Amino acid sequence: MNVTDAVARRISIRAFKPETPPAAVIREILELAARAPSGGNLQPWRVYALAGEALTELKAKVAANPFGETPEYDVYPPSLWDPFRTRRFQNGEDLYAAIGIPREDKPARLRQLARNGELFGAPVGLFFCLDRKLGPPQWSDLGMYMQTVMLLATERGLDTCAQEYWARYPKTVGDLLGLPEDHMLFSGMALGWRDEAAPINTLRSARDPFETWGELKGFD
After folding, report:
1. Closest by alpha carbon to 120, among 129, 111, 128?
2. Using CB atoms within 10 A as the burial measure, which of 13, 120, 122, 219 is most buried?
3. Which residue intervals define the domain Nitroreductase in the entry (predicted)?
4. How far is 120 from 92, CA to CA, in rounded Å?
5. Backbone angles phi, psi at 174, to 5 degrees
């Protein structure tokens, strides 16, 4: 599989098969991803992979606290404006339409939201952290590391869903991981094999055309 094919195949998967990938494969992906670029070669990422009993314990703790904790950061700016507001709204509508949940069925929508805390049934949970004293450029570096993880997983026939949702559980996750106090939880990621039969996995989020966000200047 080439990079173009991996980019095209990668989508956010929200229903997984229960089988756990081998630990050696997970380690290989995480190690290879460390070739991702980082400014000044700071390599700011700190990564934890959970499976089995450790992951079951985490899911149980989250289920016991459905309202979460004080978030590490705001995933979206307050009072989101267009075109970002419309893109986010449409993506949500498309997701719930894929699984037949109407707008007025708020309990069903909340149940689907809570599936985040179960990593959508994925057998592996990845958690990405970094030193609190680092700044936005290093957050960007960590994002590039995560994207590299996702593409390497795709190359190996695996699937992922990046989840900033986990910023709502910094203490729960931090305590279970033994995360140093000077580090923060940035994001989680569900990893495993997609359930091909799950309707929610048919969703491919829309992308605006190049003309909306890009320009070419100075070319012949």
Report:
1. 111
2. 122
3. 8-193
4. 16
5. -60, -40
